[in-house]
């Protein structure tokens, strides 16, 4: 297993060097199935950015999710409802920017942007282009 093509943060996946041995104790077995961006920071909480559906005046709000405890989807939706303060009421679903619905916490990728949606349909709008400065988007996409 060659380390030349692996980034520094993913050495725990290889395990051929003794100096990396300690990292095995901090990586849970289930994390091998999570997106690469999560693997790089296995000890850090997940931070997502959430837009309000149809709202092109309010910037996205950050939401910090602990990865040390299992994520209860209902609890996440309740937290989103409280923070998003949608005109339509409770947040019923969370969508990616392309409109596809996220069905569980394991699908969330740290650093990514999502849209909180209530009873209404997802509104496909240029949220990222209008509400997030271009340089901060580049920083998020290259994690």
From TrEMBL:
Residues 46-128 form the Doublecortin domain. One of its GO terms (biological process) is intracellular signal transduction. GO terms for cellular component: microtubule; microtubule organizing center. Keywords: Repeat. InterPro entries: Doublecortin_dom (IPR003533), Doublecortin_dom_sf (IPR036572). This is Doublecortin domain-containing protein 2B.
